[in-house]
Amino acid sequence: MPVARRRRLGRVVAVVLALAAPAACSDASESPEFAAASWPDGAPTDVTDLRGSAVLLAGWATWCVPCERELPMLDEFAATAAAENVEIVAVNVDRADVADGDLEAMLDRLDVDLPVWRDRAQTFLAAYEGTMMPYSVLLDRDGAVARAWVGSLDTDSDEFLAAVAEVSG
């Protein structure tokens, strides 16, 4: 097999493995700092404002095709009893030069009504050690990372529901 093809195949395998495996979580005692702006009003927000609640931060971008599938699922999940004690925030990580209208168009098209934070500084992935989109982080009531996922969430999976129940109970 030619070297270039082996390299491409190696990259494909690495991406598939990253999508299939849950992300490694930080020590539960760590509480990363993360601030953004509430969208569309631009009010400053900080993850510490949500302490006392279990929180799911779901990173997404307008260019992310898997995010288009995940956002409506998260919106539906937010209306279920399982999500009753969980704050779900859709964290947009698009570059600062992406227009607010592009975010609005995507959310309208997908019929998503989740609270949105705009991370124009693109610090979400660094704060929570994410590698690609979509990337979701489940925080316990103290703001510590309880679980993280690379790739689209399956909000109906036993694994996801157990993790949410553990932090929200």
What is the topology?
Elements: H1 3-20, E1 35-39, E2 44-46, E3 54-60, H2 65-78, E4 86-92, H3 100-110, E5 116-118, H4 124-127, E6 135-139, E7 145-150, H5 158-168
Parallel strand pairs: 3-4, 4-5
Antiparallel strand pairs: 1-2, 1-5, 3-6, 6-7
Descriptive notes:
The chain has a seven-stranded mixed beta sheet. The chain has five helices and seven strands; from the N terminus they run H-E-E-E-H-E-H-E-H-E-E-H. The protein has one domain (23-168): Glutaredoxin (3-Layer(aba) Sandwich), CATH 3.40.30.10. By secondary structure, it is of the alpha/beta class. The termini are far apart.
The appropriate CATH architecture is 3-Layer(aba) Sandwich
Helix content: 25-40%
**For this structure, what is the CATH class?**
Alpha Beta
Q: Could you name the ranges where pLDDT drops below 50 across 5 or more consecutive residues?
A: 3-29
Oligomeric assembly: single chain
Structural class by SSE content: alpha/beta
Number of helical runs?
5
Mean pLDDT figure: 85
Distance between the termini: 53 Å
| H and E string | HEEEHEHEHEEH
Shape: globular
Corresponding CATH superfamily = Glutaredoxin
Instruction: Tell me the count of domains.
Output: 1
Q: How many strands?
A: 7
Fill in the CATH topology.
Glutaredoxin
Percent strand equals: 15-25%
Radius of gyration: 16 Å
Describe the largest sheet.
7 strands, mixed
Give the structure's gist in a few sentences:
By secondary structure, the protein is α/β, with parallel strands linked by helices. The chain contains five helices and seven strands. The chain has one domain: Glutaredoxin (3-Layer(aba) Sandwich), CATH 3.40.30.10.
